[in-house]
Amino acid sequence: MSNWPYPFWIAHRGAGWLAPENTLAAFRAGRALGFAMAECDVTLSADDQPFLLHDALLSRTTDGRGAAAGLPWSALARLDAGSWHGPGFAGERLPKLDALAAYALATGLLINLELKPGPGEAARTGELIARRVDQLWPAPGVPPLLSSFESAALEAARDAAQRLPRALLLERFDDRDLERAQSLGCVAIVADHAALDAALIGEAHGAGLRVLAYTVNEAAEAARLRAWGIDGLITDAVDRFDPNALP
Ligand code: G3P
Ligand code: MG
């Protein structure tokens, strides 16, 4: 298997239980607890600016309404992305990918960047975001791990910036997915924890792929996956696990 520069523990959506997910406040919260890596979701504004947001719609995590992809960055930048989580986070903004890169490079935080394309936008999203990541995280240094459920996004990311490592996200998992990940040149698969077992993790390792699991919030589940040979866990429960210890 290829060299693996990433730590075992990854804070989900920044550290989205302690602070508003996918905001700089969330990355700071995970970092403060000792997490050396964070997962987050990246998508495109109407004018093709990469920024962090999980949902296609704005209403759950901001004071905006409608589809995020329908607004230019100038409008998205004004939204309050913190008040929904608690009054202490009022005025927290949606971060542009540039702001995440500046924070991550200044603090040494490693990033798993999940590509979240709108409908029919997978290839364009993969291409534009990979190109921007390639500019923002200069070599040498550990680049973000790009992940996606969408083959087309990973394929376009590969063609745009081959040096960036990629991982295939899976809700379920079978042998064809291993071939798919290999044919996309992925270094890892990132699977729903409920889809994994010892045999599948072993097969993936045999195919030269690392295996990560999302979103693992229970100690017993973390220990089970660790016994099966998992290479990393994505968790919301950043105050429940010691990021410097294996489960
Ligand atoms: O990247 C793993 C995980 O974040 C995928 O699911 O919906 O939380 O983005 P979701
Ligand atoms: Mg995600």
Helical amount = 25-40%
The chain-level mean pLDDT equals: 97
CATH-wise, what's the superfamily? Phosphatidylinositol (PI) phosphodiesterase
Spatial order of strands in the largest sheet: 1-9-8-7-6-5-4-2-3
Distance between the termini: 23 Å
Largest sheet, in brief, is: 9 strands, mixed
Percent of residues in beta strands: 15-25%
Query: Which sequence of SSEs, written as H and E, runs from N to C?
Result: EHEEHHEHEHEHEHEHE
CATH topology: TIM Barrel
Named once each, the bound ligands are: SN-glycerol-3-phosphate, magnesium ion
Total of DSSP H or I helical runs spanning 4+ residues: 8
Task: Flag low-confidence runs.
Answer: none
Write down the overall geometry. Answer: globular
Provide an overview of this structure.
- With 247 residues, the protein is of the alpha/beta class.
- It contains 8 helices and 9 strands.
- 47% of the residues are buried.
- Bound molecules: SN-glycerol-3-phosphate (G3P) and magnesium ion (MG).
- The site of SN-glycerol-3-phosphate has 10 residues, from β2.
What's the topology here?
Blueprint: E1 9-11, H1 24-32, E2 37-44, E3 50-52, H2 73-76, H3 97-107, E4 110-115, H4 122-136, E5 145-148, H5 151-160, E6 166-170, H6 175-183, E7 188-192, H7 198-206, E8 210-214, H8 219-227, E9 232-235
Helix pairs in contact: 4-5
